[in-house]
Amino acid sequence: MPAAYLIVQIKITREEGWPEYRQKVTELFAQHGGRYLVRGGPVEVLEGSYDGRRLVVFEFPSMEAIRSVWHSPEYAEVKKLREGAGELDVWALPGV
Q1: How far is CA 94 from CA 51, 59, 61, 80, in A?
Q2: Could you tell me which residues come within 8 angstroms of residue 5 by beta carbon, excluding any fewer than 6 positions away?
Q3: Rounded Cα–Cα distance for residues 72 and 6 (Å)
Q4: Residue 7 near residue 55, CB atoms below 8 Å
Q5: What's the mean per-residue pLDDT of the chain?
Q6: Taking the model in full, what pTM does it have?
Q7: CB 56: neighbour CB atoms within 10 A?
Q8: CA 94 to CA 1: how far, in whole Å?
Q9: The CATH number of the domain where 13 resides is what?
Q10: Cα dihedral angle (81, 86, 87, 93), rounded to 10 degrees?
Q11: Which of 1, 2, 11 is nearest to 63 (CA)?
């Protein structure tokens, strides 16, 4: 079964809003077939460097599922909970 992955690097700059954001994004992503594979935790650098940001990885059924939730009005509302409270890099990529 094809899968796709949403990878996020996060630096939280203000804790306010994050607990509610995490809860709501977990529920919303699950409605679109998304599930956590990685949610923070220690990073063991085997080669290269690591900048210390928290890593989060979601698995979705497809790239279309990621696009559907990411561009949805529901996610636009949830996203407001973390605006101005962190710095994120977010990537989506298909699995093999």
Answers
A1: 24, 10, 9, 27
A2: 37, 57, 58, 59, 60, 92, 93, 94, 95
A3: 15
A4: yes
A5: 96
A6: 0.92
A7: 20
A8: 12
A9: 3.30.70.100
A10: -50
A11: 2
C-alpha dist (Å) from residue 65 to 4, 11, 17, 22, 49 = 8, 25, 25, 19, 31
Model confidence pLDDT, tens digit, residues 61-95: 999 999 999 999 999 999 999 999 999 999 999 99
- Number of domain units in the chain: 1
The answer to whether residue 58 scores a pLDDT higher than 80 is yes
Residue 82 three-state SS = coil
- Domain holding 74, by residue range, is 4-42+51-94
> How many residues comprise the chain?
96
